[in-house]
Amino acid sequence: MSAFSKSDDQEASLYEAVLDEISTGRLEAGQRLKVSELANRFGVSTSPVREVLRLLQGEGFVEIHPNRGAVVKQADANTIQNIFEVLQLLEPYFVSWFADYAQPEMIEEMEDIQRRIEELPTADLIAFRKLDIEFHWAICRQHYNHVAADLWRKLRTALNVHGAKLRISPVRYQTIMEEHRELIAAFKAHDAARAEAAINKHVAGSFTQMSQQMRALGI
Fold first, then answer.
1. Which end of the chain is more exposed for a tag (fewer CB within 10 A), N or C?
2. How many structural domains does the chain have?
3. Does the predicted model carry a pTM greater than 0.85?
């Protein structure tokens, strides 16, 4: 990777790069994050690396210990449950509004993202998770409440980070495809109640899938 330039841009780019490494599982839970190694990998000095690790610590993705340095934080069931409880409040808020006010081009954007998802090999979970966030972000970012939208994005990013090593069963994967299509159909019909029912089922199914795997892994 080429070296970054300006300090602010450098720190932002480095933050995204390290977070991507964690959310895709290339940096695993419990793995030590050596400042010098990260600096060499991303072509920067150690100062922005330390700052980024402090930011990631504040967001709950990294732990910094006095004698061990920084390590990738291990997710726990309580963290996942807390995230989903907030998402269960936010998601219906966004989709019911979207069903009422979405313009045809907004729905077409979602259809295009869904088409790209369905063209993916089912084993490519890294690409799937990125497109899945893009699919739902196409709803949230249109909303007038940017504070709520920003909170949603942070929570969904946290789910990707904490669930980096979790699998998606073939049955659940197919169910996700069906639930996405149902959401699109509800939006086309401008049926807010139908959209809300679809997203409630969608979020609950994702929580069940992640919880079962975390229990099986003893997390």
1. N
2. 2
3. no
Could you read off the pLDDT of 122-158 as tens digits, one per residue?
889 889 999 999 999 999 999 999 999 999 998 998 8
Cβ distance 109 to 140 under 8 Å? Answer: no
CATH at residue 170: 1.20.120.530
Choose among 93, 114, 98: nearest CA to 189: 98
Triad 28, 31, 33: Cα angle to 5°: 115
pLDDT digits 0-9 by tens, 87-113: 999 999 999 999 999 999 999 999 999
CA angle 25, 31, 37 (to 5 degrees): 95
Going edge to edge, which strands form the sheet with 69-72? 32-33, 69-72, 62-65
The answer to the question of residue 154 being in a domain is: yes
CA 208 to chain centre: 17
Q: How far apart are CA 87 and CA 89, in angstroms?
A: 5
Whichever domain contains 31, its CATH number is 1.10.10.10
Report long-range pairs for 112-118 (Cβ below 8 Å, ≥24 apart).
Answer: 113/138, 114/177, 114/180, 114/181, 114/184, 117/177, 117/180, 118/177
Rg, the chain, Cα only = 19
